[in-house]
Amino acid sequence: MTEEQYKRLSALDERMDRLLALCERQKTEIRELTLKWEQEKITVQQVQGELQALKTKYGNLLTAHVTSVEQGDDVKSARKRLLNLVREIDACINYITLLNG
Fold this sequence. Notes:
Blueprint: H1 3-68, H2 72-100
């Protein structure tokens, strides 16, 4: 093997080592980002659950407030909201009846 070939082989070996090190760093970064993504996904699901609970509470408070107020438009909207709630309950009862039947 000539001196020139030996130098080229050494340079190639050095470049391969750097490339392998870069690949390992990239794999590590991908694992870290995947873990972070999974954690953020769980956080988003928790926040969505909290948001849904707050929306439900707000709806209940709004219904309670509107039913306690005796003004024209408020009474109409309260009746409409209560009617919708009754329809939802009826639909659920019908669905359960179909499942059990």
